[in-house]
């Protein structure tokens, strides 16, 4: 049931308001001065507050200021009840955060219409906030999902890069070993060429040098070709076909 707090020092007006609201299906709590009204609002937060401006202990402006400073009451709609209708008074209340004014005396229908309007506005704001919260929650979930995917992809790419780096190291070691053999043969052929005594020996050692040089060039070309092939994507394919360990 919708609860309305009535803060009014005149007992007859307070009783009349309480009777009207209860007959209209509202739950009511009442306070005879501003201090009690603030205490009740904090202890039992209502859905709406009707508050006279001229109150003992703490006037309506003081009540509104106190309630707007409390987390549990700062958003509760408050309608001022006043016998004063001067512009400066209305302005002061609105600047403090009042939601509406009713000038005494007012009709019952005017009172209920003002209450319904403010309650409907409050419900609309709650609905809009709930929808926004749900939208933000969904957006957060999607963002977390996207970030998780990016982290996973980054990790996979890092692991692939590590694999490629390891494979490159292994291949480089193997190529260094393969290059040593032709170089050794070239050195030997050069040495033998220096001691050759016949045209046939010279020709033979030159042939050996040409063959080993061609072999070196071929190995170097293979290095360049393998360098282009060793990408994370190609490495995965080569491993799938067991061409790499």
From TrEMBL:
Coiled-coil region(s): 112-164
Statement: the UniProt record of this protein carries the keyword Iron: no
Q: Which superkingdom?
A: Bacteria
Keyword Hydrolase: yes or no?
no
Alphabetical list of SMART domains matching this protein: HisKA, REC
List cellular component terms (GO): cytosol; protein-DNA complex
Q: What is this protein called?
A: histidine kinase
């Amino acid at each position: 049931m919708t609860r309305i707090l009535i803060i009014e020092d005149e007992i007859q007006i307070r009783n009349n308001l309480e009777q009207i609201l209860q007959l209209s299906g509202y739950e009511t709590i009442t306070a005879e001065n501003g201090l009690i009204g603030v205490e009740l609002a904090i202890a039992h937060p209502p859905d709406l507050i009707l508050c006279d401006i001229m109150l003992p202990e703490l006037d309506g402006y003081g009540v509104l200021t106190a309630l707007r400073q409390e987390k549990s009451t700062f958003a509760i709609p408050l309608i001022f009840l006043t016998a004063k209708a001067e512009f400066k008074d209305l302005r002061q209340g609105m600047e403090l955060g009042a939601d509406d004014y009713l000038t005494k005396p007012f009709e019952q229908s005017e009172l209920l219409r003002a209450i319904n309007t403010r309650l409907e506005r409050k419900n609309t704001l709650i609905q809009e906030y709930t929808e926004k919260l749900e939208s933000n929650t969904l957006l957060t979930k999607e963002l977390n999902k996207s970030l998780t995917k990016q982290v996973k992809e980054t990790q996979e790419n890092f692991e692939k890069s590590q694999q490629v780096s390891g494979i490159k190291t292994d291949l480089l070691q193997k190529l260094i070993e393969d290059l040593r053999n032709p170089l050794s043969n070239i050195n030997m052929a050069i040495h033998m060429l220096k001691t050759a005594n016949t045209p046939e020996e010279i020709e033979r050692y030159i042939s050996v040098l040409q063959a080993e040089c061609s072999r070196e060039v071929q190995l170097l070309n293979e290095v360049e070709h393998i360098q282009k092939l060793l990408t994370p994507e190609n490495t995965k394919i080569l491993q799938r076909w067991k061409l790499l360990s």
